[in-house]
Amino acid sequence: MNAPSRPPVVHVRPNDPLPSIPAESTGELPWTTWVFGGAALIVTLAAGALFMGEAAPQDTAPSAEQKIEDVTKVAEPIALAITPVRPLDIMASFLDAQERARIWDRDAMLAGIEVLISKGKPSSALTFQFGKSLGRNQPGAHLGPRHFSISYLGDDVQTKENDIESKGVALPAPNCPLEAAFKTLVASEGATPARVAVMYLKSPRHGRPVWLMRTGENTTKSISGSDCLLLRE
């Protein structure tokens, strides 16, 4: 009986290179080739994506002109209906006059309002008179002779301090606006008067604040400053 053959013994010295293991002749690439080849492909694709990501903004970024055009489109003005200013609405002027009068004297009280109206619009300065109360600061109190006037004509505002002969009486702010009082006058006349001299004061005849409206030399009508009613003369 023959003894089984033993594989040859390879003696390797410490400094000798390790023997290589030949690939099997199967016609396939070694697995190391696939691993390193796949890794290289991944790196290549990643680099390509990075390059395309950096290049895209340069190709698609809007120019300065395009940005301006876009902003212009967004900021296009919207057409709004503008309500014309009512010529006899004096509330804004009255509030401003009150503040100016309080600077003149913190206890200033309304003493009267004057204006000339032509064809439904003011044709003179709108003037507010204020005085200093001789007693309590309330409507009906007697005022001293020293008065402070504020006149509005367009964008021009004039103020003046003066003494008057008639002391006057403190008035409440008119609950009936001038424009409403003027409508009452027009309704009573049947047409818009060509010229009207207007004063807001306390009427001795009616014992209350009124809008006194003179439409002619001998034609005067009183309209209540509290409810816009036409009062009998």
Proportion of strand residues: 25-35%
Largest sheet: 9 strands, antiparallel
* Shape by Cα distribution: globular
**What is the averaged pLDDT score?**
77
Order of helices and strands: HHHEEEEEHEEEE
The radius of gyration is: 49 Å
- Could you say which structural class the secondary elements and strand pairing correspond to? alpha+beta
What does this structure look like?
This protein has helices at residues 31-60, 64-74, 91-104, 178-189, and strands at 108-118, 121-122, 126-133, 143-153, 156-163, 195-203, 208-216, 219-224, 230-231. By secondary structure, it is of the alpha+beta class. Strands 1, 2, 3, 4, 5, 6, 7, 8 and 9 form a 9-stranded antiparallel β-sheet that branches. The protein starts with 30 loop residues before the first helix and ends with a strand.
